[in-house]
């Protein structure tokens, strides 16, 4: 018998009251695979992640996640004047495993410091969260997800608003996580970066495509996924089409 998938959705339909916001989602990702979730603004990427963490009950179908996933939310509603250090933020990851009412044990501090080290923030361990740059804050939150030591990580647009150096560092961490056999779901607007994943899932209110990037990321799928937000950069026979998307950020 094949091992059960680490993450799966079957006949999934999700919404917020007035009919489905996302429907027809059906995919499976085996343990140790990386899956890129592509889609325009409002396509349903965050909605899918919310269902996978159990925050949103399906209108139809079901979701499956092996264990308790670590989740990096797209928008942090963290108060920036709240006096916590980068180390405190990383330590919050260990709250997921219980004993939250006791002071952190040495092993937990060690894990949090190691996570900060991995994301290149060892020197900023005692810096207040609000005093970090945007890219550093994102990395501190990634450290929190790492501290959870989860088999499945759900990262919602981890690169949005992040400087190139932070993005490069985060990509290296994702490669490590993959080689450790963890399952990664990463949503992004960057079509080109999707090609380095094992699988891609294209959403636009419904599932447009799912599969290996080489099979799924053709011009037709991208046009159906992004509509007029798609800009084709280059198209040559026998080569994957190169494209970028226009994205709109809420600020
Ligand atoms: N809390 C909510 N209440 C009602 N509708 C919502 C809510 N959150 C999202 N939606 C709707 O669900 C649909 C999918 O939104 P979602 O946030 O999942 O898109 P997304 O792909 O994450 O977009 P973005 O790239 O902008 O982050 C949209 O039509 C959106 O308006
Ligand atoms: Mg989103």
Blueprint of the fold:
Blueprint: E1 7-15, E2 20-29, E3 34-38, H1 45-52, E4 60-65, E5 70-72, H2 86-91, H3 106-118, H4 134-147, E6 152-156, H5 164-179, E7 183-188, H6 191-194, E8 199-203, E9 207-211, H7 213-216, H8 219-226, E10 230-234, E11 242-245
Parallel strand pairs: 3-7, 3-8, 5-6, 6-7
Antiparallel strand pairs: 1-2, 1-4, 8-9, 10-11
The structure holds adenosine-5'-triphosphate and magnesium ion.
Under the CATH scheme, which architecture of the domain at 1-69 and 152-160 and 183-251 would be assigned?
3-Layer(aba) Sandwich
Determine the mean pLDDT.
89
CATH class of the domain at 1-69 and 152-160 and 183-251: Alpha Beta
Biggest sheet strand order reads 5-6-7-3-8-9
Secondary-structure-based class equals alpha/beta
CA-CA gap between termini? 48 Å
Q: Which series of helices and strands comes N to C?
A: EEEHEEHHHEHEHEEHHEE
Largest sheet: 6 strands, mixed
Structure explained in plain terms:
The protein has 251 residues and is of the alpha/beta class. The protein has helices at 45-52, 86-91, 106-118, 134-147, 164-179, 191-194, 213-216, 219-226, and strands spanning 7-15, 20-29, 34-38, 60-65, 70-72, 152-156, 183-188, 199-203, 207-211, 230-234, 242-245. It starts with 6 loop residues before the first strand and ends in a 6-residue tail after the last strand. The mean pLDDT is 89. Adenosine-5'-triphosphate binds next to helix 1.
């Amino acid at each position: 018998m094949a091992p059960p998938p680490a993450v799966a959705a079957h006949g999934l339909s999700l919404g917020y009251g007035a009919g489905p916001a996302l429907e027809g989602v059906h995919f499976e990702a085996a343990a140790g695979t990386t899956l890129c979730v592509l889609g325009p603004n409002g396509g349903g990427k965050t909605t899918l992640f919310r269902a996978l963490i159990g925050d949103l009950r399906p209108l139809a179908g079901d979701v499956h996640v092996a264990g308790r996933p670590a989740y990096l939310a797209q928008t942090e509603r963290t108060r920036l004047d709240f006096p916590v250090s980068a180390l405190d933020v990383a330590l919050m990851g260990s709250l997921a495993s219980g004993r939250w009412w006791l002071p952190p044990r040495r092993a937990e501090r060690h894990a949090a410091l190691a996570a900060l080290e991995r994301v290149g923030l060892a020197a900023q361990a005692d810096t207040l969260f609000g005093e970090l740059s945007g890219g550093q804050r994102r990395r501190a939150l990634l450290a929190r997800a790492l501290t959870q030591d989860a088999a499945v990580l759900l990262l919602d647009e981890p690169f949005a608003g992040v400087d190139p150096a932070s993005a490069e560092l985060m990509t290296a961490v994702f490669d490590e996580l993959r080689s450790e056999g963890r399952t990664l779901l990463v949503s992004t607007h960057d079509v080109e970066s999707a090609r380095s994943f094992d699988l891609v899932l294209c959403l636009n209110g419904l599932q447009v495509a799912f599969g290996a990037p080489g099979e799924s990321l053709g011009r037709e799928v991208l046009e159906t996924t992004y509509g007029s937000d798609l800009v084709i950069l280059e198209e040559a026979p026998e080569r994957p089409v190169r494209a970028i998307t226009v994205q709109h950020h809420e600020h």
